[in-house]
Amino acid sequence: MRYFVAVAEELHFGRAAERLKMAQPPLSRAVQQLERRLGVVLLSRDRRGVSLTTAGETMLVEARLALDAVDAAVRRTRRAASAQSALVLATKAGASHELLKELLDSYAARPGAVEIDVLLCEIGEQRRLLRDGRADVAIMHAPFDVMAGLDSAEILTEGQVAIVPASHPLARRSSLTMADVSDVPDLPIARWPRHDDTYPPGPGPEVHSQSQLAQLVALGRTLLVIPASSRAWQWPEHVAVPVLDAPPVTTLLAWPAGLRSPALAELVETAERWKEGDKAQL
Amino acid sequence: MRYFVAVAEELHFGRAAERLKMAQPPLSRAVQQLERRLGVVLLSRDRRGVSLTTAGETMLVEARLALDAVDAAVRRTRRAASAQSALVLATKAGASHELLKELLDSYAARPGAVEIDVLLCEIGEQRRLLRDGRADVAIMHAPFDVMAGLDSAEILTEGQVAIVPASHPLARRSSLTMADVSDVPDLPIARWPRHDDTYPPGPGPEVHSQSQLAQLVALGRTLLVIPASSRAWQWPEHVAVPVLDAPPVTTLLAWPAGLRSPALAELVETAERWKEGDKAQL
DNA sequence: AGGCCTGATACCCCACCGGTATCACCGGTA
DNA sequence: TACCGGTGATACCGGTGGGGTATCAGGCCT
């Protein structure tokens, strides 16, 4: 199955074999054997190249899930065996430090607390980390991250702010609307790749990592609308202006549905208690 | 991994080997090898028997998920290859016939409709069927069924009714409350097994299948609170009385998160359109 | 002390996986 | 049209490993 996925991704037996660090003939045979065992043709080998059949497409997505599940089993088991099973929490680099720090501190103060490793990842990568067992729980942001397939607990809901250069006219406003920021010619909003790795059309710069975006913001080349608590990116030469009608962003803890270990349950409970306390402060 | 799960479930190498239709020694070796590869002790072989270590417990749940995912890949791929990929819909035997029939009929009337196989299953079995690929979509009932890990679309929300023998005093009431039905000495509510196969305490009869329950209802030995549309179980000698403060039950379509095939998307859209039409009727 | 039941070990054999060498086929090109 | 580059398939071979049987080691009963 791993072999099939490699071939399906490369659409080329030679390159796939190279990636798998093996020779091409056994790879061909292995895929043929998989097809024979399933009784299904997964790849159509036309002259000049390979393409997926519809069954092959199903197999590709299902096989990825299955392989991730196997990886997850291995990783989580290893983790459960070693050093009193620390939890691994995945979070985007841009997420609020203060929020996370407070949460981790309150959790660490609990009697039965286990160690929590923080795993920084790129945007949109959390799902994958949870699925293949590299992480146990992630900080995510609704409505940006799709929560499908995950259980979650809300931590904080807040408005969003626009980050603009201090010298820009918009910086003098005390508040903005989406209409104000969506079509600023000299500060186009950056474009992220879609799931198929193509970019949506538009004037903004193409970015695929947080650091790229940070760079562009620092240069004053793009405008950013982010949750109010995500202040990590605020340079002195930039100003944060509330965007009144931006959809509120909810920060939440998310974990694979059904995999609520005792340690995780405690963390979630801490978060919920913290949230209550936070509300009381407001 | 399959071997480990068998041993972990039986907690006995001999019986596990028998179940796997193989001899005991290779099974022992295979499990040892898995432990060596993971670098983790999964089973503690004490004198007289086998028990799971904590790492073994994680492995058991993760391995089950992984094996199900592999099964799902095989099943869904096979299905995708054969007969223009029919959808398989899983539903409890007790769910409303009329609702399902209307839904299937409206879907079948659509131009691009594929065939839909209906798979009847026991209560609580739908998750498993979706997970291991025997079904693509299921009819479930919130709040009874936990939707974690699944995407879903609501079809219908309705109140619940109590099914009581026509001769019983409660049958003469035009409506009831939960307090009325929760503590009727001669009609105790049946008890279902929990996930660990033990039964909650209480006076009611223990049941583990729909047919058992149907039998008890027919005998007038238990009282039942079910969604108003689930009339399949209504015998002439029984009466359905609305229970005003019973939590409303929502019937919904559920499918594994993220696996929304085109055919499934059409079915969901049909359901949602049907729901709108239904509202208009009210 | 001896039988039993358990899981582990010893040893054997064949299937299968991976490697190398080579073929069959197609497309482009001179 | 003949050649060549490139692709995936086939032929064959060797070693690992998974499965089998026979047997051992240790704990618990009688």
Give a written overview of the molecule.
The structure is a homodimer of 282-residue chains. By secondary structure, chain A is α+β, with helices and mostly antiparallel strands. The first copy, chain A, has 3 domains: 74 residues, Arc Repressor Mutant, subunit A (Orthogonal Bundle), CATH 1.10.10.10; 95 residues, Periplasmic binding protein-like II (D-Maltodextrin-Binding Protein, domain 2); 84 residues, D-Maltodextrin-Binding Protein, domain 2 (3-Layer(aba) Sandwich). In chain A, 39% of the residues lie in helices and 20% in strands. Chain A has 9 helices and 10 strands. In chain A, the strands form 3 sheets. Chain A has a 5-stranded mixed beta sheet. Chain A has a 3-stranded antiparallel beta sheet with strand order 8-7-9, with no helix packed on it. In chain A, strands 1-2 form a two-stranded antiparallel ribbon. In chain A, β3, α5 and β4 form a beta-alpha-beta unit. In chain A, α5 packs across α9. The longest helix of chain A is centred in the N-terminal third of the chain and has 28 residues. At the A-B interface, α4 of A face α4 of B. Chain A binds a DNA duplex (30 and 30 nucleotides) through α3.
Blueprint of the fold:
The structure is a homodimer of 282-residue chains.
Chain A: H1 2-10, H2 13-19, H3 24-38, E1 43-45, E2 50-52, H4 54-81, E3 87-92, H5 97-108, E4 116-121, H6 126-131, E5 137-142, E6 150-158, E7 160-165, H7 178-182, H8 210-218, E8 224-227, E9 238-243, E10 249-256, H9 262-281
Parallel strand pairs in A: 3-4, 3-5
Antiparallel strand pairs in A: 1-2, 5-10, 6-10, 7-8, 7-9
Helix pairs in contact in A: 1-2, 1-4, 5-9
Chain A binds a DNA duplex (30 and 30 nucleotides) through residues 12-14, 22-30, 32-33, 45, 47-50.
